[in-house]
Design goal:
Layout lengths: L7 E7 L4 H13 L3 E6 L6 H8 L4 E4 L5 H12 L4 E5 L3 E2 L2 H12 L4 E9 L9 E2 L4 H13 L4 H16 L1 E2 L2 E2 L3 E5 H6 L12 H11 L3 E12 L9 H19 L8 H41 L2
Parallel strand pairs: 1-2, 1-4, 2-3, 6-11
Antiparallel strand pairs: 4-10, 5-11, 6-10, 7-9, 8-11
Helix pairs in contact: 1-2, 5-10, 9-10
């Protein structure tokens, strides 16, 4: 028998999350979690106040500066009181059935550190919620193929491999950090998230260290939560691209073993080149969108007459 949601704490990290934060907190309240901890990473948009008005029992932990996602979770874990803690992005909708199911899987073996559900986009599309650990030899082709030829053979093979991992469920290398249920003992055993990761890849690093310490990571595709995605990151897209690639470099340095360590100088150059490519594509896309909007506006003005 799985523990009820009332025995689960929820930690939600928020940074200018807009109305999605209140929606997330309301879903957790309706699911019956024992406590809700909102970690406010210096939000300025009033979203935290809106969320606490919607659910007054939610507790707010305010950081002195924006600690990033992993740093925010670490702060929330310090005040959460239950052994099982649901770690959430602020743009999720989580139901009681998913929490109960995750708790049941976590209890199936006392060496299970955390369990991740299937994430579903707003349009009902299932995202890839579990994957294999990236390695230099396994991932370098996809790192560029995903940008230069997103529909090419390499990208398709990479996507298919990860979809197979996520679809099978059970033991996996890592699950997405947007939502997972974690055992406090395991989280504290590896000292939580590494604060050197500001955004992105922090959950990959956490799961890698948990595996190294002898813990299991599970993915349960039959349990789903709704994920909007990108609400906070979308407000600072260029900074997030830089943060992502910095995290990729940190992870590469931390996990490369044997002959792969000899390739680290080349990896550094490759990651820098990839960051430039992504930033360039984003800039071109924004300029094109702006020009299209301006042209459409002029045409509407000309059609309406003086």
């Amino acid at each position: 028998m799985s523990p009820p949601p009332e025995s689960v704490s929820a930690v939600v990290v928020a940074y200018n999350s807009g109305p999605t934060l209140a929606d997330c907190v309301v879903s957790l309240d309706e699911a019956g979690v024992g406590e809700i901890v909102i970690v406010d990473n210096e939000s300025t948009d009033g979203s935290v106040a809106l969320a606490t008005q919607a659910v007054r029992r939610a507790r707010v932990v305010r950081t002195e500066r924006n600690l990033g996602y992993g740093g925010g979770v670490n702060q929330g874990m310090k005040v959460a009181s239950h052994e099982f803690v649901l770690v959430c992005n602020s743009d999720l909708s989580v139901g009681r059935e998913a929490i109960e199911g995750l708790a049941s899987r976590l209890m199936s073996d006392d060496r299970v550190a955390l369990v991740g559900p299937q994430l579903i986009d707003r349009d009902g599309t299932a995202s890839v919620s579990a994957r294999a650990f990236p390695t230099i030899s396994r991932s370098w082709r996809q790192a560029f193929a995903g940008i230069l030829a997103p529909k090419g053979r390499t990208a398709r093979r990479y996507a298919a491999a990860n979809q197979a991992i996520a679809g099978a469920g059970g033991d996996v290398d890592w699950v997405t950090g947007a939502c997972f249920l974690v055992r406090r003992e395991a989280f504290e055993d590896v000292r939580g998230f590494d604060l050197s990761y500001f955004m992105y890849v922090e959950e990959v690093d956490l799961c890698w260290r948990l595996h190294k310490a002898g813990w299991r990571i599970l993915h349960e595709p039959s349990l789903s939560v709704t994920h909007i995605g990108g609400v906070s990151a979308g407000r600072r897209p260029y900074a997030m691209v830089v943060a992502h690639h910095r995290s990729l470099w940190r992870y590469s340095k931390a996990t490369a073993e044997g002959h792969e360590r000899l390739a680290l100088p080349l990896v550094a150059v490759a990651i820098a080149c990839r960051a430039v490519l992504v930033l360039g594509r984003k800039a071109v896309s924004e300029v094109s969108t702006s020009r299209f909007s301006d042209l459409a506006g002029r045409r509407r003005s000309e059609a309406s007459g003086p």
